[in-house]
Amino acid sequence: MILNRRKPTPSRLRRLSLVMILALATETWGGRMEFEEADTLPQVDNLLFGASQIGIVSQDGRWFALDRQTHQVHQLDAAQFAHRFPKPWPPQPYEIPQSGPRILRSSTGQEFQLTPAYCSEGAHIGHTLRDHQRPFPSVLKHCTSVAALEILEAQVWFGTMQPDKGGEAEAEGVVVQAREKKHKLAAITTKSGLTPGPVRMLREDPVTKTVWVATAQGLN
Q1: What is the pTM of this model?
Q2: pLDDT, position 23
Q3: Which pLDDT score, from 0 to 100, does residue 3 have?
């Protein structure tokens, strides 16, 4: 895992109707050091935002704190993390039931239902999205699926991936569209500075009014 310090292409970000940009930590962990097995930051499962620190919850049950000023990261135990980031916490970004559609949640708890795409081994099954039980006409490609969601007023941000027989692959990066109509507002990809891999999570930072993006290979 790396923390991305490259700025995304400004022309793409200016297309957004809200002044929202990727939150890119600078000079952190040596600046784009490649992930090593000895590094301590695993796959990000959730982010919690405080005035001076950002809490990172890993998928394997570890807790970290990122200092906003120094950009230093420290691993914490459960008690330390709960003290620095007291509950209630924001809702989990996703839920995968034993049966039925997956649930994708925004920071404020708004939910979309997702039936993932699968285009491999002869299959060509597109994704389906529902907003309040109503079909949602996304601007995503047929075989693109969604792993992360954030809703910012009239905008829906999708973190994309493409399922295949080997697991999950990179797709369209972050795609922003209007909520009320099928209209693409922006796309943020590796060409504009996003770290590679499928997007795992999107979360608005209420302190800085920016959006954090976790991919399989980095935190942006």
Answers
A1: 0.81
A2: 38
A3: 57
The predicted-structure confidence for 81-126, as pLDDT tens digits, reads as follows: 999 999 999 899 999 898 889 999 999 999 999 999 988 878 888 9
How far, in Å, are 75, 95, 189 from residue 79 at the CA level?
A: 12, 25, 37
Q: Could you tell me which residue, 2 or 58, shows the higher pLDDT?
A: 58
The structural domains of the chain, with segments of one domain joined by +, span 2-25+92-219
CB 175 within 8 A of CB 12: no
| Rounded distance between C-alpha atoms, residue 40 and residue 190, angstroms | 24
CB 194 within 8 A of CB 7: no
Rounded CA separation 52/71 (Å): 10
The torsion defined by the Cα of 141, 153, 21 and 136, in degrees rounded to 10, comes to -10
Token pair for 150 = 């954030």
State the number of CA atoms in the 13 A half-sphere of 199 facing the CB. 29
Work out the number of other CB atoms within 10 angstroms of the CB of residue 126. 16
How far is it, in rounded angstroms, from Cα 3 to Cα 54?
13
